[in-house]
Amino acid sequence: MNDPGKSAQRIVNDSDLTRESWKVFQIMAEFVEGFEKLAAIKPSVSMFGSARLGPGHPHYATGERIARLLSDAGFSVVSGGGFGLMEAFNKGAHAGRSRSVGLNIQIPHEPSPNRYQDISLYFRHFFSRKVMFVKYASAYVVLPGGFGTLDELVEILTLVQTGKSRRIPIILVNSAFWRGLIMWLRDTLVAEGMIDLEDLELFQVVDEPQQAVDAIFDYYKDRKIEPTTEERQRQLEL
User: Fold this and answer.
1) Is residue 186 part of a domain?
2) Which residues partner with 120 through β-bridges?
3) For 27, left (φ over 0), alpha (ψ -120 to 50), or beta?
4) 3 part of a folded domain
5) What is the per-residue pLDDT for 14?
6) Do the beta carbons of residue 170 and residue 201 sit within 8 Å?
7) For 70-126, how does the pLDDT look when each residue is reduced to its tens digit (9 = 90+)?
8) Residues 215 and 206 sit within 8 Å (Cβ to Cβ)
């Protein structure tokens, strides 16, 4: 005799499986749209920082200035598309001569995207959005921020450290803010063998907007900004 409870559970499981299977197409659509819209923005710099620091905060002014300098220097600027420092990045880039790009994420407590975007993409999934931050970036510039900012920083450090992504400049802005984290990386992770001392050379710290831009140009002084054939192949496997 059939167990009605098991039959009902099987129907629920089948429904869940169908919904999850169709979800794959939504994820594919996010990747396809991202690839199509962002392929033409190179060279670009991905910038990160707190959503909680608005106009009037010193970090906002710093972020806006860096983005403007990068934009005028020929770099598209990519941000998370929200408010706070993300708005500052898009605002600075929008005022410059290159493109301002927002990779907007749909989460309940975030307001609508900021209005300083020349190219806007919308994501439901953090992981597909992360790929877009990395795939076309010639550099990362990271200002003070919270969990989301740290998440993006550790993501690129991990990808570069493991060889899954090409080496690019990773610039931390505001030495006072990052000092405690860097000390912990050195005094705990390096000391206990979790990372190598050389891994601390994957990033550099600056304080002034022009220093961030100069660090990127210095890095590419003796190498091409476009990825090599080998690096392009590596990027396909992110």
Assistant:
1) yes
2) 102
3) alpha
4) no
5) 65
6) no
7) 999 999 999 999 999 999 999 999 999 999 999 999 877 766 799 999 999 999 989
8) yes
Q: Identify the pLDDT of residue 232.
A: 82
197 to each of 13, 150, 176, 216, how far by Cα in Å? Answer: 49, 20, 21, 22
Query: What is residue 199's DSSP assignment?
Result: G
Bridge partners (DSSP) of residue 100 are 77
Which two structure tokens, joined as six digits, stand for 123?
A: 């994501």
Domain count, the chain: 1
Tokens of 99: 């493109």
- In angstroms, the CA 56 to CA 62 distance is 11
Phi, psi of 101 (to 5 degrees): -120, 135
Which domain covers residue 110, as residue numbers?
10-235
Answer whether residue 145 is part of any domain. yes
Residue linked to tokens 């939504």: 26
CATH of the domain at 124: 3.40.50.450
CA 24 to the chain's CA centroid: 23
Residue 177 CA to residue 168 CA, distance in Å, equals: 22
49-67 residue pLDDT tens: 999 999 999 999 999 999 9
Tokens of residue 213, six digits: 């831009």
Distance (Å, whole) CA 90 – CA 101: 7
Q: Kindly list the strands in the beta sheet with 100-105, ordered across the sheet, starting from the edge strand earlier in the chain.
A: 119-123, 100-105, 76-79, 44-48, 137-142, 170-173, 204-206
Rounded to an integer, what distance in angstroms lies between the CA atom of residue 131 and that of residue 32?
A: 12
Residue 59, burial from CB neighbour count under 10 angstroms (0-12, 13-18, 19+)? buried
172 lies in a domain?
Answer: yes
pLDDT tens per residue across span 25-47: 888 999 899 899 998 898 999 99
